[in-house]
Amino acid sequence: MTTLSPHSATDPAPATPPVRLPSRPLRVAVLGATGAVGQELLALLEERGFPVAELIPLASPRSAGQPLPWRGERLEVQPVREGCFDGVDLVLASAGGSISRAWAPAAVAAGAVMIDNSSAFRLDPEVPLVVPEVNPEAAFAHRGIIANPNCTTILLTLALAPLAARRPMRRVVVSTYQSASGAGARAMEELRQLSRTVLEGGEPVSTVLPHSLAFNLFLHNSPLQPSGYCEEELKMLHETRKIMDLPDLRLSATCVRVPVLRAHSEAVNIEFNEPFPVEEARALLAQAPGVELIEDFSANRFPMPTDVTGRDPVAVGRIRQDLSEPHALELWLCGDQIRKGAALNAIQIAELLRQEEGA
Fold it and tell me: Which DSSP string corresponds to 267-334?
C-alpha cells in the first residue's frame, strides 16, 4: 500500500497537529468540484448551511473556467496548482487517489484539514477512517488528513455498528448491488443513453464501463486480486475492520454493478457469538443514527433505491432470523451512493470537527 502521511519527512507539518476546525466561517476548497460527488458536495454545503466564507472549486486544468452554481451565483472552476491551498481551512477532496496523494502534502502544509474521498489513505494506520455515526472519536486523532470510507462500507457499518455494540459479532457475508454513480458521472450518463438504445432496439456498446449496464448487471469491475476477490470487495473487508475496530472480524463480500443510477443496495448476513433476537435487533436499528427502518412484512415492502435517492438516511429492512444458523441475522439495506456514501459523510466529518469546538 502506498502510504503518505501528513507528518512525513518531506512534509513540513506543524509540531502540534490540527485537531478541530476554526469556529469562524471557513475558506473551503472542493477538489474534484466538477465530478458527481464534487457537485453533491457543493449542493450539500449550501443545503446544510455549512459556514463557508469563501468556496474554491478546484479541478483539472481541462475543467478550468467551467462555471458552477453556488448560493445563487456562479463560480469559475480553478485548476489545482501550486499555492491553490494557501489560506484554505478545509479541503473536501473527491478527485481520485493519485490526485489526493499528489496534493495532500501541500494542503496540510498550508494548514488545511483534508477530508479525502479516495482510497489513497484509508488503510494508512496514521490516518483516521471515519463514519461519524459509528466512530466519531477517531476523527480527532487526525494529523491533517481524514479518510472518507468506501461507499459500500459506509452504508454497511451504519447497520452493523448498533448491533455489534450489543452483542459480539464474528462474521459478515454481504452481497452488494451497486449503482452506476459509483463509477462517476460519465457512467451515469452512459446508463441513461444505453438504456434508450436498448429500448429503441439497438445494440448497447459501453465506452465507460467494461460492459453495458443497460438492462444488465455484472460483477464489480475493480481489479481482481490473487485471492480471486476484486479490489472493491477487499475494501469492504479491511475498511469495516478499521472503522469498527474489529481487526479479527471475518467478512466476505461479493460486489455487483447493477442498472440503478445512484443508490447502492446490500444483502447482509451477520453472525454473532450468541443468538440475537430479531425484535431486539429491529429496535436497535430503528433508533440508530443515520438509519431509517422500512419494513412491512404483510405488504412485502422493504427498502428500495428509490426510497433513498437524494436522501440522507440508510434504509434498513427485512430483518430476519437466518434459518441455517441460530446465531445469525439477515437484513437488506439501501443508501444513496453519492450522498451518504460519499459527499454527506465527508461534510458530516467537517461538522463534527467544528461541533466539538462549540461552533
Answer: EEEEEESS---HHHHHHHHHTSTTEEE--BGGGTB---HHHHTT-SSEEEEEEEE-TT-TTEEEEEEE
